[in-house]
Design brief:
Blueprint lengths: L6 E6 L3 H14 L3 E7 L3 E3 L16 E3 H7 L3 E4 L2 E5 L4 E4 L4 E3 L2 E4 L4 E3 L6 E2 L6 H12 L5 E5 L8 H17 L5 E5 L11 H13 L2 E4 L3 E6 L2 E5 L4 E2 L2 E4 L2 E3 L28 E3 L11 H18 L12 E7 L6 E4 L9 E4 L15 H8 L9 E7 L10
Helix pairs in contact: 1-6
Bound molecules: flavin-adenine dinucleotide (FAD).
The site of flavin-adenine dinucleotide has 38 residues, from α1, β2, α6 and β21.
Length: 398
Amino acid sequence: MHNGAKRRVTIVGGGVAALEALLALRSLAGDLASVELVADTPQFSYRPLAVAEPFGLGTCHRFDLTRITRDQGATLHVAGVDAVEPEAQRIVTWDGRRFDYDLLLVAVGARATTAIPGSVSIKGPAYTSRFRTVLRELDERQITRVVFAVPAGASWPLPLYELALLTAAHVAERGLRKVQLQLITHESSPLDLFGATASAVVRELLEGSGIEVLMNRVPLEARQGELVTAPGPALAADRVVSLPGTIGPAIRGLPQDRDGFISVDLHGHVRGLEDVYAAGDATTCPIKQGGVAAQQADAAAEAIAARLGRDLDPRPFRPVLRGLLLTGAAPRYLQAEVAGGRGDAGQVSEHALWWPPSKVAGQHLAPYLASQLNALDGPGGGVHVEVRVAAGSFPAER
Ligand SMILES: Cc1cc2nc3c(=O)[nH]c(=O)nc-3n(C[C@H](O)[C@H](O)[C@H](O)COP(=O)(O)OP(=O)(O)OC[C@H]3O[C@@H](n4cnc5c(N)ncnc54)[C@H](O)[C@@H]3O)c2cc1C
C-alpha cells in the first residue's frame, strides 16, 4: 500500500471513460484515495462533434486535463503507458518512467484503423478538414456522387448517418442539383442496434432527405471512382466517406484478446488481475461508444470505491445506449427499451429525454462538461436514442 492512510488509485487515459471514472471516484471515495491520472496528451477532445464541425454546427471542444485533475483534487502525469507490471503493482511509460499503484484503472481507448482503404475516414476532430474538402468539392461541382459506407466492424455507426443527413441538408440548402447520396451498411435496417422504432425513424429521415439506403452489404475498398462491396456489384462513387475500424491498445502485461482488447467482467475487473480494472473502448465490450464507455467506468469506479472501504454494493455494468443523431432538421428525441434483444419497441419525442442532452451521456461527465461550457451540444436537429442492450451481448459477471 502507498505510504499514509490513502491508497493510490491510478487511472490511465484522458478520454471519456477515464474522466467519468475520475469524477465518479471523487464523488464516491474522494476522501479514501489519492488519484493520479496518466494520459499521453494533456487535453481531452470531445470527439462526437467531429461530424458537426465541417458544417459549422458545432466545435470539437478541447478541455485542459491539468485543470480538470486540479479541480478534482487529482494529479496529472502526461505520459504514455507502455506496460503494466501487475506483480510489482507498477506501470511503465514509453519514456521508461515507473509509477506505483494500489489500484489501477486502464481506460486508454482503442486504436483507430482505416477500415475501408481509399475512403475519407472520419476518425475524430483531426479529420474534419478532410470532410470539409468533400463539401467544397460538392459545392464547386467537382463531384456529384458521395457514398457513406459503414464498415463491417463499426459497432457505433451513428456518426456516419449524421454525416449523410447533414450533407443532404447542406446540398438542399445550397440548391446543388444532380447530387447522388447513398448510404451502404452491413446492417439489416438503419441503426438496427437501437431497435425497430429508432430504425423506422432513421429510415424515414434518410429517405426524406433523398439518401438512398443499401442494407446487408459490406463496403470493402474505394478505388478509381467506385466502391467495391460484398455482395457486388460495385457502386459508382466520386468520394467514399467512412468510419474507422478499431483495434485494441495491446498494453503489455494485461490479458487481452487477439485484437489487443482487455478482457473484463461486468465490474470492470480485468480477468485474473486482483488490482487492475479497465473500462471503455479498450476493453472487449463489443460496442465502442462514449456513453457505454462511461457506464463501464461508473461500474468500475463503484467496484474500486468498495475496495477502498466505501460501504456500497457495487452495481454491475448494465449497458444502455443513448445516441444523439444530428439531422439538420428540427430536434427530436427517441428512446427504445429492449427487454430481450434488438428490435423491440421504442419511443420518439420532440423533447429531451435526459439532461443535459449531451452526445456522450456520461452520468458524471456530461453535467461536468456542461458546467464548463454553457452549450456543449449546440447544433439543432437531433434524435436521441436510448436502448437497453441485451445482457447476453456482454461479458458474463464473475
Ligand atoms: C467520429 C466519431 C464520432 C463519435 N460520436 C459519438 C457520439 O455521438 N456519442 C458517443 O457516445 N460516442 C461517440 N463516438 C465514440 C466515442 O468517441 C468513443 O467510444 C469514446 O471516446 C471511448 O471512450 P474511451 O475513454 O474508452 O476512449 P477515448 O475517448 O479514445 O480515450 C482514450 C484516452 O487514452 C489516452 N491514451 C491512449 N493510449 C494511451 C497510453 N498508452 N497511455 C496513456 N494514455 C493513453 C488517449 O489520449 C485518450 O485520452 C464517436 C467516435 C467517432 C470516431
